[in-house]
Amino acid sequence: MMVSSISEKMKILKRNQIIILVIALMLVSAGYLNYTANQENTIATSGVEDGTQYAGIGDAKLVSSNGIVEQNEEVVESNTIIENTNEIPKEKNEIVAETNTTAKEETKEYFSSSRLNRENMYSQMIESYQKILENQSIGEAQKTIAQTEIQNINTIKNKIMICENLIKTKGMEEVIIFVNDKSISVVVKADKLTQEQIAQIQNIIAREMQVEITNIHISNK
User: Fold this and answer.
1) Is 216 exposed, middle or buried (0-12, 13-18, 19+ CB in 10 A)?
2) Where are the domains of the chain?
3) What is the CATH number of domain 159-221?
4) How do residues 38-81 score in pLDDT, each as one tens digit?
5) What pLDDT, in 10s, does the model give residues 183-204?
């Protein structure tokens, strides 16, 4: 009986050892599987992070490239602005040239139109006095006055022509003279007049028209 009891106890002990061994193997296997899974997750995560990092580097290069392109565009725009700025003086010169041309044309028109108006005025005055001479109902005294006025007008016209020609010989490009009784107005085409030029004009007018220098008014245009 005692031998049988020992034998049974040995069997129970061996069975327990086998069970413990199986459990230990199961735990080891579970630990290994868990370790392997963690390693795979770590590798996968590392790959994502590395991919993100490389993607970031690629993006950085792309941004840098765009920056270079934008800088090149800015340089081109800057060069265009500089070229346009260089063209501004040309435009200003053209505007100045057009302005000078317009001013010259206006000045030329002034002298020609003023001379024409003056001649028309004298022609109308002479025509009016001529009608008096031709009117049979007007007395001889009035006709004598009309004849005298016609002679005075012609004398003034001749003196004006002489004075203008003499003034031009002094280097004046254009000049026009207006006579209003004893007051003489002289307009000379010039940017400015020197004191010597003014004195020359005054001497010519005073001598040819027999007027005082104080009655001579000179201006430039």
Assistant:
1) buried
2) 1-113, 159-221
3) 1.10.287.4300
4) 554 444 444 444 444 434 434 434 344 455 445 555 545 555 55
5) 999 999 999 999 999 999 999 9
